[in-house]
Write a sequence for this structure.
């Protein structure tokens, strides 16, 4: 007979990621509010090579002109806006999960970057950013 899963955490897990998720839930949805109230938080990957950092962010439905990437005080800041256009004027929604609004991600960089050499490309809803490290600061 299958055991009923009542645990909040499943194993194996990545503890820092799980702790961050639990705090995010407590902070942004303390009374069980839906995600429309808190806006949305795009998923990002940040990886490092010997000479640069690379950011990849999933930004479906975001226009390139509504995204800004900056480096400030050792942080990488990704911010922007997404608007969900609804074409329905009649009928009734039964499920509405797509969120819109402002978003901001701030990620601490472990090394200094060359702010003047940042390169970005936005294609098929995915933002690709190359952030070259400062020479001599590797």
């Amino acid at each position: 007979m299958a055991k009923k899963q009542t645990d909040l955490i499943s194993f194996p897990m990545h503890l820092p990621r799980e702790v961050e998720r639990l705090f995010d839930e407590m902070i942004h949805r303390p009374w069980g509010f839906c995600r429309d109230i808190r806006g949305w938080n795009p998923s990002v990957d940040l990886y490092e090579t010997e000479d640069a950092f690379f950011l990849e962010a999933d930004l479906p439905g975001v226009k390139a002109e509504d995204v800004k990437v900056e480096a400030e005080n050792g942080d990488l800041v990704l911010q922007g806006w997404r608007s969900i256009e609804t074409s329905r004027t009649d009928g009734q929604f039964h499920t509405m999960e797509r969120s819109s609004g402002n978003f901001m991600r701030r990620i601490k960089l472990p090394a200094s970057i060359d702010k003047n050499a940042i390169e970005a490309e936005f294609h098929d809803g995915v933002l690709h950013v190359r952030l070259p490290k400062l020479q001599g600061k590797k």
